[in-house]
Amino acid sequence: MPQPDLPLDQLRTYRSTSEEPEDFDQFWAKTLAEARGHALDVRFEPVATGLTTLDVLDVTFAGFGGHPVKGWLVLPSSAREPLPVVVEYVGYGGGRGLPHSHLLWGSAGFAHFVMDTRGQGAGWNGGDTPDPVGSASSYPGFLTRGVEDPHDYYYRRLFTDAVRAVEAARAHPLVDAGRTAVVGASQGGGIALAAAGLIPDLVAVAPDVPFLCDFPRATTISARHPYREVGLYLKTYRGRTERVWRTLGYFDGVHFAARGSAPALFSVALEDETCPPSTVFGAFNAYAHEDKAIEVYDFNDHEGGGAYQQAAQLSWLPERLTGGRRAG
Description:
Blueprint: H1 8-11, H2 24-36, E1 43-47, E2 54-62, E3 68-76, E4 83-89, H3 104-107, E5 111-115, H4 154-170, E6 175-185, H5 187-198, E7 204-208, H6 215-221, H7 228-236, H8 241-249, H9 253-257, E8 264-269, H10 277-286, E9 292-297, H11 307-322
């Protein structure tokens, strides 16, 4: 399949035209202050998994609105002192799944916190966190739930959960709160970018083929779901485009990237028709921290680098998390 987007030399200089709302920072400061008005109420319960080198804890914490959100905390069984932690967010339609599917970062010697995704999990990895908030009419999926008002939008709840997940992970005594990284692929990568813009003291960010970036371009050039959900919604609700663009501006990864204060390793696939490469470069080129890099997979679609990108992360992330010291 030929590359569907801009040539690589143009991608490296591409700038998104997504408009940032004037009250972007105030909106998110108020949102997070409201969430923190609820006690974090984090609980860690050991889980028997049959794993011999890793311990798993079933985690519950209070996310947006004080709603209970689930997660897994995976720790090396040998851990006796606080470890750097990798907080991971999940791709579209998936949930936290089963704990034995999350072995990488614990096996590398880090604490690993996997956040469940409210209301998702029926598409692939199962989820255990309902979303108790309803919405007005929306196209099937999550991208248009509450999309006509930023206060009602689904991703306001999910991004708030993501910040609270970091706080929950840091609450465990075997987690070194000062050495926290966030990672994720596709939707998880978009959530990681939101966390990077909302949490000022992360030490590393690794968004793979991130979704939720450069909405004006993504929703007009991608014919695939999930971005196509927005076009199909507006196909039915004619005349509401500006209202929808305004809402999406509060959730665009480009604007969170502009506030990123930690080193970042992105990845992009040049034949990606789900998250077109220009939308990924829109966020990467806007990313504020000077220590940033992007792995380019020339002939891959939305699967991106897969295990090759994990290998790149295993080379890049430990030094940011440990300063060259051995984890554990």
